[in-house]
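Box S2. Input/output pair 1.
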Amino acid sequence: MSANYTTEKKFDKTDFTVTPFVKGEYENCAFVNCNLSEADLSACIFIECEFSGCNLSLAKLSKTALRDVKFKECKMLGLRFDQCNDFGLLVSFENCSLNHSSFYKMKLKKIIFRNSQLQEVDFTESDLTGALLDGCDLLRATFENTMLEKADLRTAYNYSIDPEINRIKKARFSLGGVAGLLDKYDIEIE
């Protein structure tokens, strides 16, 4: 256990750009409408926490542990989730903006992304087996050697996924989204 252990506390409208974020372990805590942009969350541990309406853009996540953490309506631009501690990693995102974030080489089996902006997100070599990308905008997101087996992208849009360099067996796509699997061929589908 780290020196600073906080449990069952609600942080409401705290601006951590003014009040520095105290590093430590946070369990069953709620962060509501907080500003954590560019905050150094390195080596912090978050267990069963929820972030809602927060700005976490460009926060530092080196060795940060996210264990059963929910993000709702958060602005999370340019985050390097690939630098997180992958032990016990479990996150979900709802109505979040994650543009320019990286999930490079991450194990994200059964991860849930709902109604989120995932533009220019890097999923290279990540494992999205059984993932749900519900109503997500994947414009210019990178899928390369990505495991998408049994993933559900039926309501996702703007994606470009090359079936030759990604594993998509049993993945689910909508008929309208199939064009995103044929992008590299530069063909017209009407």
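Box S3. Input/output pair 2.
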Amino acid sequence: MIPMKMTGNTVLITGGGSGIGKALAEAFHQKGNKVIIAGRRADALEAVAKANPGMEYRVLDIADGASIPAFAEELTKSFPDLNAVLNNAGIMVPEKIVEAPGYIDTAEQTIAINLLGPIRLTAALLPHLKSKGEATVLTVSSGLAFVPLSLTPTYSATKAAIHSYSQSIRQQLKDTGVDVVEIAPPYVQTELMGAGQASDPRAMPLKDFIAEVMQILESGPVEEVIVERCKPLRFARENGKEAEMFNMLNGMH
């Protein structure tokens, strides 16, 4: 691997209208990259782009698989220098399994957005990225990929799948010039699970998370971006503490 260059890129960031996606978009923009944010809500995307002159946006419903090939074709024509995609869009919704089958719509939507979305978008953009010589696919998993939260079983499962998928495509792409970098956030102050999360003192402040992510990327090359707050989850199995972390995370004593 070679370090990801941190300036002069053209980067697509999904879920860029809020939360981690917005914050990463602004961080990359400030470092002199051309940033295109994508998401479902045009008003949110437009507000972020207006606040960051030079940033572009495109409306994309990542769950709509049929729309992704045309989206990728238009994007690469409009931004031929595109050399990075950051698969960030995701949802995290509690599920009550005992109420089956009532939760299944949530589960299927979570899989469509969190797992099928990145797989489809990466596939659609990969021929273009391979043509750039040096390119990067960034995926966003979670600390919950390694120790699941029982309240959100499908979310946790999709993030475990993203971790596995990232490992596999990294190996397959090792001779192509396309690097694969996984970012695994801990519990961060965003509105992923509602407004209360953004001010939850148990969560890592968003600005601190972004600063540490960018520092790790700059110090690269790295296959995984694991901030200090996420290491207890990421390395729970290796440290022999998987059961302990699971019990702590899920309020079991």
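Caption for Box S3: Residues 104-130 form the longest helix (27 residues). The two ends are 43 Å apart (CA to CA).
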